[in-house]
Amino acid sequence: MLRVINGTVDAYVHTTRINKWDVCAGNAILNAVGGKMTMLSGQTLDYSKADSPSNSDGLLATLSEHSRFLDVFGAAFRRQKS
Q1: pTM
Q2: Domains in the chain, ordered, with CATH?
Q3: What pLDDT was estimated at residue 18?
Q4: Got the DSSP string for 30-79?
């Protein structure tokens, strides 16, 4: 996510299960600089649920054009899972 934040890549995509604590700091920094991180379904990560510390629905982090990347990567992720 640091590479997204500093502009050296356009997007970060993660498709396997990941623990939310592994991405929460990057998500906070990305939000602070105007970027966005969602699951590949488009939903935001919910850090308040103690009973579900991991995410299996993929991640997308971008500094801009989030919906454009979400259209492409979200569709590919859904095809891969089916």
Answers
A1: 0.90
A2: 2-81 (3.40.190.80)
A3: 95
A4: HHHTT-EEE-TTSPPP-TT-TT--EE-S-EEEESS-HHHHHHHHHHHHHH
